[in-house]
């Protein structure tokens, strides 16, 4: 099979916001306790943070991490997690029905994020709480001093404000599973008024209005239209969440699910722009895809978990090779929409539907999905390019005209590097790719990274990494034309410098 691309530095989508390589840590399962924080672990630092985990996170160069939830935030009292640890309450955590010890809270997470080289994206509770708790938390985090909550932070040992810039106005407020679920009218009003108060405390923040929990929600996209009627002028982003799975074991259909994400993004853009037009607004709203990933492997195991235990192994999806391919196509989809998708958070980061797993007292290891995320984060910085591609197509159960080739390119002007990201969705055949690269005169192939495996279900574990990339891809560049062979079912990064 043959496919082609034109990659020209003149065809720019937009400067990529590095925050599209964000991630997420929720107080859920073993993400915090036993994940990023395990005081007795041999690699634990003076604050109990696992240094082996920090190293893997730093390797990923994660620019921003959403915290503390997720569903958990909708019944969370942030005050429980600050001040002397010994006097913090143990609470029933209602979203996941566990015991929350509150050993970690806002200040410790800010410390962890700093050590990880990431910013914090903070969510406020608009489920059981509202304007007051949100503005107090913001004052606690960002106000320098001389007020009740800023001085409280200082008394807790944090003289410098955390300067958290990006704030989510609640989480998945359309979901019946959410504590304090709202109608679109209720949410729109509450979010708008919370945003107003928060901006009075700190006008420099950026705010995210909750969109639908996924594109199959009954109110989608009316939820966006109604809530944005209220919040449009008060916020900077609308959120999207979506998880994918292959429970029916149909790999050809599964690998096409990036097209669903693409459609979702386009619909949210249209809806936001409709409200912009209605309001005669000069402002264009951007998208924060602040939860995305594969999530289905752990569904059955989670039903067996006893309620009211501390940090049980919840949502521990053990990813396989086909999941890594899908994740690759999803990352490419974000790059194609770099003009509007400015934040995206791989949900989540450690142990809970995560690229990084830990053994209690033992090692930290990389799941299959770690690799496309790593490559995109490292090499997908700069300007997203509009590539013109031609590919043979196939039909699957839910999709028609699915291109075997899913690809895009990123131009890093500063480093004078180009990266082509490409997935070959064909399960049996390689794809012969011809790329017109004439605008990149003088460039040479630095590396052709490939993630491939004969077994779609191959997985990594603490004992063995079966799915790892290699740099032996088959490509050559001659007279401005790049010829590459993309192996059947593979993720590829072709780097030119
Ligand atoms: O990431 C796991 C959960 O998925 C989050 O808590 C919630 O926001 C979503 O439903």
Automatic annotation (TrEMBL):
Belongs to the glycosyl hydrolase 51 family. SMART domains: Alpha-L-AF_C. It comes from the Bacteria. Its EC number is 3.2.1.55. The keyword Transmembrane does not apply. Residues 290-490 form the Alpha-L-arabinofuranosidase C-terminal domain. This is non-reducing end alpha-L-arabinofuranosidase. InterPro entries: Alpha-L-AF_C, ASD1_cat, GH, Glyco_hydro_b. Pathway: Glycan metabolism. It holds the Pfam family Alpha-L-AF_C.
